[in-house]
Amino acid sequence: MTELVGSIIMSVDGDDVDVVSVSPTRNTGRKPVKTMNRTGRTTGFAKGVSDIMIKVTAVVDPTKPRNWDAIEGAKISIENEDGSFRESYLGCGTVSVGEQYTVDNEARIDIDMYSLDHVVE
């Protein structure tokens, strides 16, 4: 049986946050350039500025109140337990925050974040 990547660690101001899920999206910044030609199709692209957006769902810990709107410079790492795989998103900051409450008596916070860098360690 193969061991899969399983841990998500989010560090904010040196404090770990319990994260339920992370969904990173890397935008390359490339855009198709439409031109007038005989084929009627796009024939090229332009390079732009790339960016990284991350959707994070975290568990709300009532013993550690946190200002979720003010997160800047956070680090999110995804790794397996033996440390053979690790990728990190650095310089993460909050763009928007949403809340959810479930029947299972669990309060969660949904955070849309940006990341300034992505590193595979």
What does this 3D model show about the protein?
This protein is mainly beta. It has a single domain, classed as Pnp Oxidase, Chain A (Roll). It has strands at residues 7-12, 15-17, 19-27, 31-33, 44-46, 51-59, 74-79, 86-101, 107-115, 117-120. Strands 1, 2, 3, 6, 7, 8, 9 and 10 form an 8-stranded antiparallel sheet that branches. The protein is elongated, with a radius of gyration of 19 Å. The two termini are 24 Å apart. The mean pLDDT is 88.
* Net shape: elongated
Largest sheet: 8 strands, antiparallel
Domain unit count: 1
CATH architecture: Roll
Sequence stretches where pLDDT stays below 50 over 5 or more residues: none
Could you tell me how far the N terminus lies from the C terminus, measured between alpha carbons in angstroms?
24 Å
Strand content: over 45%
Order of helices and strands: EEEEEEEEEE
Keywords:
single chain; 121 residues; mainly beta; Pnp Oxidase, Chain A; eight-stranded antiparallel sheet; two-stranded antiparallel sheet; 10 strands; 56% strand; elongated
TL;DR?
This protein is mainly β. The protein has a single domain, classed as Hcp1-like (Pnp Oxidase, Chain A, Roll).
Describe how the helices and strands are arranged.
Blueprint: E1 7-12, E2 15-17, E3 19-27, E4 31-33, E5 44-46, E6 51-59, E7 74-79, E8 86-101, E9 107-115, E10 117-120
Antiparallel strand pairs: 1-2, 1-7, 3-6, 4-5, 6-9, 7-8, 8-9, 8-10
